[in-house]
Specification:
By secondary structure, this protein is an alpha+beta fold. The protein contains four helices and four strands; from the N terminus they run βααββααβ. Strands 2-3-1-4 form a four-stranded antiparallel sheet. It is globular, with a radius of gyration of 13 Å.
């Protein structure tokens, strides 16, 4: 099993707009329905209005690699260009 902790550092004041765009595009719902996805959840720290934590859990890394090639993730990457300054990813094999 693979757990990914993804931290987005947002452009100031854009967190809510980004999350609205992600939801409107169906990215969260589509990802949760992907083969091998066990969890895909966004969290907003109460002490940092310009950060988002994304928690992803997958059955194995091969499905993560497939996930990264999908159209809805290409859309996410395009959205990030308008809203995200930096993305940090930590991977845990559990």
């Amino acid at each position: 099993m693979v757990l990914l902790l993804v931290k987005y550092t947002m452009k100031p004041g854009t967190r809510d707009a980004f999350l609205q765009k992600v939801e409107a595009a169906g990215i969260t719902k589509i990802t949760r329905n992907e083969t091998g996805n066990l969890r895909y959840e966004f969290y907003c720290p109460v002490d940092d209005a310009d950060a988002i934590l994304l928690l992803e859990q997958w059955t194995d890394f091969s499905v993560v690699e497939t996930h990264r090639t999908m159209d809805h993730i290409k859309l996410l990457v395009a959205l990030k260009k308008d809203y995200v300054i930096e993305t940090q990813i930590e991977r845990f094999d559990i």
